[in-house]
Write a structure and sequence with these properties.
The structure is a homodimer. By secondary structure, chain A is α/β, with parallel strands linked by helices. Chain A has twelve helices and 15 strands. In chain A, helix 1 runs antiparallel to helix 3, helix 3 crosses helix 12 and helix 8 runs antiparallel to helix 9. The N terminus of chain A is likely disordered.
């Protein structure tokens, strides 16, 4: 996506001399209020999309937006837009999501939603005249935990959803997403109309926790996100021969786990060789393995691996995925075994907007904030909105890189710093200062 | 153990000019009758020790022995001895077990028990005068499937059991072996008295299916067993760090599965390097693996491997086990991870009697039967009896090497050939022709 070109306006209000300051106490109090919805064991948070707790968190947000005097619009799937009007033209949007994984943390999503709300209400309170509208946004169903369907709300806004896939998606209890929507009075067929006219969006900004260890390890406060990596996922099944571990000589074995071990080592090696930024910052993981029969006194006859390969460029991802497939076939051939390689999923990485990357970097430079220009290894709503408008992301550190866990943590100072930078970036984009 | 020295007897009966022929139909019919006890899905056989089906199979054997006119003795644990008297001196024993694993095959055990019965009753019918008694034996509980305790009956006969271990052994339902014995009216404390006086045993011979692929692959009919391998079993636990598979760069990972993959590959390599007979015919297997958290989008934080290393010499087994432990520590150190190595079990390999090996080989040579001199990779009752008397084993082929499965198969011709050789070997040993 090229750098953002802003429309020129003759009668635009002038930018104020200084940015208004956010209300730290209010931001942290509202974040806390959200995190109490769906709280459970050891402080874990569970707000699965369309569950009672998730609906309650959205209701709280509508309340907070109304209280702040924003114009609230909830679309048919449940995305929430809290708008502050400006002179004219397309709006600057900022937001994230409120839904969570099972037993997740407090910050994955809400930091970006409440951060955007805090930025917009701070602008409103400051009384500055805006050259264009600004909106705080909450997208529905960013996590895939319930229906195996990620970035649901933002995909609909970006016009990226095949309606049949959506309504047929099923949760762990066998409930179809289409039935859930019908229960809430939503006509699934009407959802394709949710695609938002790109002409109404000047830019989209998302504040999010890193969910990785890089910022903390490098002692940086802010991540300026350049691209969002996407995964290729494969299931690799080696079929050898289950035999007695004592009576089968080494040269008469077809040990499927020994074959799989070679591939696991190769996935790590190939990803390491392509780990640098110029080679696509590839990561490769074998996260799950099934061994049959899986007992100490039997040679494994069948082993199934779940392989996850990600990169910030489709080219690098495909290159490594093809190399892994090739090596799997080689290993099987060397050992006279069968191998099946089943693609689970393959998505395209997304570049974020060069103009917005520049804005965020400039702010960090001016304020002398230690920052890291970096890709996002995880998916976010920004990768959907990037398909219809300039999109940018601001990362704040995750303690020990932990996320999707009750141990997820970011210091309050860092959350507030992230919200301040988000506010600054929204205003610079609104006033065309980038 | 040194070659067997036979006591010299002045008034011993002369050996008959030819061996009496076994009754093939009777042998196969009785084997079939045993295999119908505990038969289930797809022809699988389940006769767990002290289950109703296992007790019925022993009752059938007592009936068959009585019918054959043998003197039947059942000891307190349930081992069965069917004796045909001879002139004097210690007896030549032959036998195996009738209990099975869960969903096992028809031949693992019964071939040796019914084969021995057929040999003894054939000798009886032939009317030859024996220089010493012969006995067909059924040992209780050779399989460890129910109580995790293998070669129960033969260990007691050999005086190799710690009574406390035995009575405290527990099955999957939580029932103690001591309670099972009490239920059957057996006083656990009296079992140490089952140790048989070594002076009463001239030799022990066991006919058994190979449970491995060697004989079939080499086109041999008979395996002359030289030694019984024993396992060293280890649990190896690598502890790294569970992280998000997308957001954690390759150089910031502690992937416990990648570490484990290196060890799995090393176990195979080390065993291959020590696979030759002069290096101890080592086999090494990783049969089971547990990965935590075990999902496609998380780097494995903890992996547990079950390692099984076997050899026909304790020296080779220990050498490879030490090398595997060393490599595990090296891998953990290279990756700045923790590794725990927990010994599960370590047993000593057993050499079989050189004199008996010679007898069985001589028979094959004279009858021009294709045979293989080979070790046993699996454990058998013979390895216990070898501790108090000269012991030998005769293997017959297993189709595709499969055992502990309803697919276990040996051709009837091969079963009958095995029983004929057993009969011949028993008579040669009885008449001191070795």
């Amino acid at each position: 996506m090229p750098g953002m070109a802003l429309p020129h306006s003759k009668a635009r209000p002038a930018a104020p001399a200084a940015r208004p300051a956010i209300n730290r106490e209010r931001l942290l109090a509202d974040l806390n209020a959200v995190s109490r919805i769906g709280i459970g064991d050891r402080g874990s948070v569970t707000r699965l999309v369309f569950s009672v707790t998730e609906l309650r968190s959205r209701q709280l947000l509508v309340h907070l937006m109304t209280q702040a005097g924003l114009k609230v619009h909830v679309d048919r799937i449940g995305n929430i837009f809290g708008r502050l009007e400006g002179a004219d033209g397309p709006a600057v949007l900022a937001g994230s999501h409120l839904d969570s994984v099972v037993h997740g943390g407090k910050f994955d999503g809400p930091v970006g939603v409440i951060g955007a709300l805090e930025a917009v209400r701070t602008i409103k309170e400051s009384g500055v005249a805006l050259p264009c509208p600004v909106e705080a946004v909450c997208f529905v169903g960013e996590e895939s935990s319930r229906f195996g369907f990620s970035t649901l709300g933002s995909s609909l806004v970006a016009g990226q959803v095949k309606m049949k896939d959506l309504t047929n998606a099923v949760d762990a209890r066998g409930t179809k997403l289409g039935e859930v929507l019908a229960g809430l009075g939503v006509d699934g067929d009407s959802l394709s109309g949710l695609k938002r006219d790109p002409k109404t969006i000047k830019a989209y900004l998302e504040l999010h926790i890193e969910q990785g260890p890089v910022l903390e390890a490098k002692g940086k406060k802010i991540g300026v996100v350049t691209a969002i990596a996407a995964p290729t996922r494969l299931r690799v099944i080696f079929t050898g021969q289950a035999d007695h571990s004592g009576t089968t000589p080494m040269d008469m074995r077809k040990d499927a786990l020994a074959a799989a071990a070679n591939l696991i080592a190769y996935v790590e090696q190939a990803a390491r060789e392509n780990a640098s930024m110029d080679k696509g910052r590839v990561v490769g993981t074998v996260g799950a393995i099934k061994v049959d029969p899986g007992v100490i006194n039997a040679i494994p006859g069948k082993v199934e691996l779940a392989v996850d390969i990600r990169s910030v460029t489709g080219k690098a991802k495909d290159r490594v995925a093809r190399a892994v497939e090739g090596r799997a076939k080689e290993i099987a051939a060397e050992r006279d075994m069968k191998v099946d390689i089943l693609p689970i999923r393959s998505e395209e990485p997304v570049d974020l907007d060069a103009g917005l990357i520049g804005v965020i970097r400039d702010i960090c430079e001016e304020k002398k904030i230690a920052y890291e220009v970096m890709p996002s290894g995880a998916g976010h709503d920004a990768m959907q909105i990037a398909k219809i408008a300039p999109a940018g992301m601001i990362f704040i550190p995750s303690k020990k890189g932990i996320s999707h866990s009750p141990l997820e943590w970011t210091d309050p100072d860092e959350i507030c710093l992230g919200a301040e930078i988000l506010l600054d970036a929204m205003m610079r984009v609104a006033y065309g200062e980038n």
